[in-house]
Amino acid sequence: TPTPPQVPCIPPARQPSLRLWTPERRSPCPSPAEEGDPAWPAPEWRTLASRGRWPSRRGHAQHLTRRRHSSEQVQEGSAPPADFRSEKWLPERAGGDAGNSRQAPRAEMASRDRICSWDVVVPYASDSDSGSVDLQLSNLEDIIKGPSSLEFTGFRLRKDRPFISKSHCTQLGSDKFRYLTHDDAFSEANIENLIESIQEFFHGELKIQSEHEKLTYLRSLSSLSRILPYDETTESFIHGHIADIVHILYILVEEEPLHSLFSPVRQEVFVTITDLSYQDVHLLFGSEDRVNLFSLIIKSTITLPSEKTLTQLQEIKPSGSCKSECLYRQTFQVFSEMLQSLVVRDPHLENFDIILKHMDPWLQSIKDHERERAAASIAQVLKCLCMHLNLKLPLRFQRLGHLVALMVLLCGDPLNEVAEEAAESTYYLLHITLRLKYITEDKKNRPILRGAMKNCQELLEFYSIKQFYACPFKIAKIFEVLLDSNELCQFVVTILDGLKNLEHSCTHQLAGELLMSLVENVEFRFEEVPEIVGVICAQLSMISQPSVRQQVITIVSLLISRPKYTDTVISYLLYHPVPYDRNLAEMWRTLKVEVPSTTGILSRLLRKLQTCHNEPTQEKMAYVAVAATDALYEVFMGNKLQEAMFQLFPQLLMTLLIQIHHSIDLTMSEVAIPPGLYKEQEMSSKVTPLCFAIQATKTLLLRTLCFQEFNIMEKNEGWALLAGKDCHLQGVSLLANALLERNHVLAHKILYLLVPLLNRGNAKHKLTSAGFFVELLQSPVARRLPSIYSIARLKDWLHHGNNIFKILALTGLYYIIRHQKMREDIQSLLPCILDLLCESDEKIVLLAIQILLLLVRTMDFSTLAAMMRKMFSLFGDVRPNVHCFSMTLFGASVKSVKYADKKGVENQVLDSLLPLLLYSQDENDAVAEESRRILTICAQFLKWKLPQQVYYKDPWYINPSEVETICKFFGKKCQEKVNILAQALTFFKNAKLPIRRAAVLFVGIFSKYLDRNELKTKGTKWIEDDLRHLLRDPEPSMHIVVSQALLQIQKVGAEPEPEQTVCGLRKLMCCLPT
Fold first, then answer.
1. How does residue 162 score in pLDDT terms, banded at 50, 70 and 90?
2. Spatial separation of the C-alpha atoms in residues 168 and 171, rounded to whole Å
3. Ranges for the Maestro-like HEAT-repeats domain (predicted)?
4. 18 lies in some domain
């Protein structure tokens, strides 16, 4: 078994030299270093030794260059490191010796332009990374236990950059520079000269400073940085003028042209910052002005034109002292060194986090050369960080998932150079991640980490390192086992957020596929699901490629289909303005989920809506109710969840009908819209909660193939009825009957659903449910319902304070009575029904009469007699239908009286004759006809044969002779004629003219047949008084009829008592017994 390769050895970032350039001179105080090494003062050596540094005896230090380990020199015997670039890249990007990359251009610069210079020693160790990554936990534990093993000992630091004397600082135009000896360099005079020269620059006008003066200032700062650990004056000066230094550096960088590179000032700024960074003087972190300086430095470097463009500018405007190509390469090299110097000692990854935040937008730049430079810089930083990694808690870097996502996307970048830089970054990032996870994971979770590493090892065994880093999908698959839930969320959000800036279709496709793969594999480990969905909603409008749009929407489908996230995703999607915009509507319509999950999604939406219906009615409707209704409409339109729609049809239909009831006459101003939801968006006046509910209900019927029911609703204006405040229940009844007629299977499902729902929710919820339930009682299936769920519930509604429930209860009883088996259970409700005959609501009275008509044949005598009295009291009711049906029920009652009970109701029947006779003259033809019909029934009950004139339809005042015949008949048949006359007088006050006129005619003519003894006892004055009162009636015909009747009454009252004649006495004697 081959030995796993070690953790890659990364050269350290550029470090400042701590000795002056004195090749022949030795210090009188030798150091404990090996024999032959340059001598160092003991205090200086101890300072270095305490920091883990030693003086170098190597003749020439190598530089940390922009080139990667593929082109760097390594120790003898070391295997070449892993190479991520194409062969074509190497000669183009690695021209020249690594050790002289910075020396060469500076050698070409005039000596007056470079006062002092120094090099960085880059030590090397074995860097053979071409095999698979070492993921053995035991090796990792050894690394953590012994962090010093990451430090490469035995390397030396060499100084070849001298200080400058005061004379050189003052003679800025001189080309002669004197190199200072070791003793001179640390003299107080030289230090004071440097400080004075810097202070003079502070107080000068930067805009009139020459390039040479700017360079001298920057290099003087660098020289002072070397003395910083040993001189308190220098330390005090530097720390006391940080703000001035930052301000001047900002101005120097700002004055440099953004579109050209003809001056080394920018690079010297980087060198100065680097030198100070190694002395723990950070000019780029902390206050706002430092952050602004850092941002400006990165922008001014990354946004420089490409090397080709700068070369063309050089041809137009030669720089003279330095070739453009060398200066260009040198500037980016020093920029990279500067970034690395910030992370050499970064145990908490705080500095690295700041660097990543500044580089983030450039890694996603749409310009190739900017993206390439940012990727190269990050690769060098990660390489340096990996080499010097010595992590300590607490860690400040919390964006691992974001960084991994950026690198994975860049690994698939269409520009090869960018992909190669990202591949190398990922290589080092994996090693950093393993160490980071080992430190941050709790000891209890070590087995989980061990398992994750084992998974990584197994995956890496299938392909080589080069293949691994060339495939973004494999990279994502490795990292997904290492990232925690929060980091996975960062990964997804970063890729989604990057879609808006990606111009290449291939990168779009890669991002979409990466998201799909990751979400499918680790979907149960997400926690920040709302954030992911939020980014999707925000970025969807910016994605135009159909396949990528579908992939992104599929991510939402995957998340919403998992029960763990369903509520979370739905809640977030509902928190958007209605009606939903094109993108959100497309998301709802194109949801692709497995069949078992479709029901869950619709049921969760229903639950959101039903929760609002179960709460007491509020002043404003909950916004979630409107949003959920619109969401259901969009889902129905997409028709992707059709099977679930059929399965949940009863719940969906009833919930939407209830929502319609709640939405009647509401506007969006009466909806409790969450603050800030619409912002500056204006709401159309046509948008109402009702329109969402109606369109959702229509779509549901169409998608579930209820075309006939939909047609019935349209033809009978059912949708308008549903939307009406006073006729909503009529619309509900129409739809219920349509379903019962055309689709009884669905109707029966709804019936069983409604049984437990009738007592839930608020008043509107109960009313709509009850209205639908009552209509379904017509179905034969209703006979199977236990009485506790049907008759008992209807009985409760009969005593409800709301008349609508009473109407529904009576309607339900009317339907149930049609089922013969259920009639017996309703007999106990007869007293309640009879009491309802006194209600003022016409519908209640009519329904009660209709029910009694069906039960009249099964009533006992006492109930029947009581009901006849109730009906008689309703004769002449101002409500024509009540009047008509009361007579109908009275006639049915008369016919239902058994022979043995006839005597008990005979008087009631006799009392009804005159009212029925007079109502036959009613102006309402239906009432008149029904009166004649019931009068006939009563006559048959009394075994009378009415004269034919009773059935004439002409008014009595047209032909009084007909009234004479009728009165003569009743005069012969009836006794106590005065009582009949008194009953007729009560109709004088009837509101209807035909009835009053008929009553007057009847009184005038019938008075002829009064009994003399009765007439003598009571007289006629009471009759005359009532008639005279009618003379005030404004109707002329009444004047005539009343006058005639009054004369007739007076005539009857004035006639003498007839004398007994002989003939009469003889007849009387003959009748006596002998």
1. very low
2. 5
3. 369-602
4. no
Q: Which residues contact 1071 (CB under 8 A, 6 or more apart)?
A: none
126's tokens: 């074995």
Domain assignment present for 243: yes
CA separation, residue 102 to residues 62, 108, 303 (Å): 9, 11, 22
User: b vs e for 591-606, b when ≥16 Cβ sit within 10 Å of the residue's Cβ?
Assistant: bebeeebbbbbbbbbb
Q: Are 1067 and 1026 in contact (CB under 8 A)?
A: no
The β-bridge partners of 334 are none
Mean pLDDT of all residues in 930-956:
90
Task: Tell me the residue type at 622.
Answer: A
Phi and psi at residue 622, in whole multiples of 5°?
Answer: -65, 135
Please list the residues that pair with 671 across neighbouring strands: 621
- In one-letter notation, the amino acid at residue 477 is K
**Which of 560-569, 977-986, 990-999, 1060-1069 shows the lowest mean pLDDT across its residues?**
1060-1069
Selection from 675, 679, 695 nearest residue 687 by Cα = 695
Task: State residue 2's pLDDT score.
Answer: 40
Classify residue 388: in a domain, yes or no: no
Structural domains of the chain, count: 1
Q: CA 962, CA 1005: separation in Å to the nearest integer? A: 11
Q: CA angle at residue 431 from 426 to 432, to 5 degrees? A: 90
Provide the 3-class DSSP secondary structure of residue 621.
Answer: strand
Is 60 exceeded by the pLDDT of residue 998? Answer: yes
3-state secondary structure of 55: strand
Evaluate if pTM is beyond 0.85: no
pLDDT in tens, 670-679: 888 888 787 7
CA distances from 696 to 474, 648, 652, 660, 701 (A): 45, 14, 10, 10, 9
- What is the number of other CB atoms lying within 10 angstroms of the CB of residue 1028? 11
pLDDT in tens, 812-870: 999 988 776 777 778 888 889 999 988 889 999 999 999 999 888 888 898 899 999 99
Contact 874, 886 (CB under 8 A): yes
CA distance linking residue 359 with residue 373, whole number of Å: 10
Question: Which residues form the domain of 212?
Answer: 185-313+322-342
* Amino acid found at 1016: K
Burial of 716 (C-beta count, 10 Å sphere; 0-12/13-18/19+):
middle
Question: What CA–CA distance (Å, rounded) separates 117 from 17?
Answer: 10
pLDDT of residue 771: 93
CA gap 874, 849 in Å, rounded? 11
The one-character DSSP state at 622 is E
Residue with tokens 């883990």: 52
Position 709 in a domain: no
Q: Interhelix angle for 960-973 vs 902-919, to 10°? A: 170
895-908 pLDDT per residue, tens: 999 888 888 889 99
Q: How far is the C-alpha of 459 from the C-alpha of 476, rounded, in Å?
A: 11
